[in-house]
Please model this.
Amino acid sequence: MQYAEPINNLIKAISRLPGIGEKTATRLALYILNSKKEYVDELSSCLLGVKDKVTLCSVCMTFSDTDPCIICKDDSRDASIICVVSDYKDMMALEGMGGYKGRYHILHGNLAPLKGIGPDELRIHELISRVDSSAVKEVILATGFDSEGEATAAYLSRLLKPYNVKLTRLASGIPVGSYVEYMDGATLGRALEGRREF
Amino acid sequence: MQYAEPINNLIKAISRLPGIGEKTATRLALYILNSKKEYVDELSSCLLGVKDKVTLCSVCMTFSDTDPCIICKDDSRDASIICVVSDYKDMMALEGMGGYKGRYHILHGNLAPLKGIGPDELRIHELISRVDSSAVKEVILATGFDSEGEATAAYLSRLLKPYNVKLTRLASGIPVGSYVEYMDGATLGRALEGRREF
Model:
């Protein structure tokens, strides 16, 4: 026996979410079926809300419900330093740390030619014109240290070289709390290469 | 830094779902933020759809988008046998087995005085009038074998005794594929008590 069609549709729609299989989707759909109408209305309007009310900040390209976003609006933050990240989540992780007082630029991805993601799919053009038109002194390349993140950083560094800015890259090495013996060769190589005076 | 308000609202709404913590809710909310408008519209309308289009079958009290539901409408199914289950999911599990050709009655819970669930909170009244008014020959009490399910079955059996129906209970014993050595004493006691000729 099949579930009634509206239930089945909901199960299918939920199971398209990442990391949610059919069993979990069924459990959630039945929970929703049993829950109060007010909650379902709220959940539904929250879903539509993120698509309707959240847009990209026209300066740094982050997701925001204001334009410019609260970081780009904040005069206490140093506009001459731009930290370039691949993703909104990376920005949130760096903000979570709390020590950074510059601004951001979100690329919305990494270069990945095999997946059809070239420079035009990312917010690179916006970064270049930002560096070109405002008094930017330093660009921190904070894309990931996986191959796509590295390639993106290398590409951006070539692109930004003609502009009179200091280009830096986040340090690569052994994470805090990790043991040397468990690190891979590439990380150890980076850690050794980037060693600092004690 | 906080997420933009609409994103935060969505995270909160999602994290109220069972088994979904704040981390998973954040991951899902950001996935939704990045996904196509069409998908979000579809998900939202599916959510509203289960509440708008799915109601209770007026005969057996199951969730259905038709009234009566497809089982109660199906003349090939024996209307003289009613299998009483606590929950819609229990009915779906029994239907999944495929061997049962009678009808159902869904209680929507078990008696649980400590949680404030008494007979009036369940669909017991509807069961009684159904047994009273139609030619029901057998009522199978198929509530669970946990303490609440057992108490509910016992309560229903007392309530249905005055009516001229055969009352049965699902067999309790060792599940298929299980080992005797791992069974608890209560299950072994039931299995011994209910032993059948080989």
Chain A has two domains: 5-53, 63-169. Chain A has a mean pLDDT of 91. The domain at 5-53 of chain A is CATH 1.10.8.420 (Helicase, Ruva Protein; domain 3). Residues 37-53 of chain A form the longest helix (17 residues).
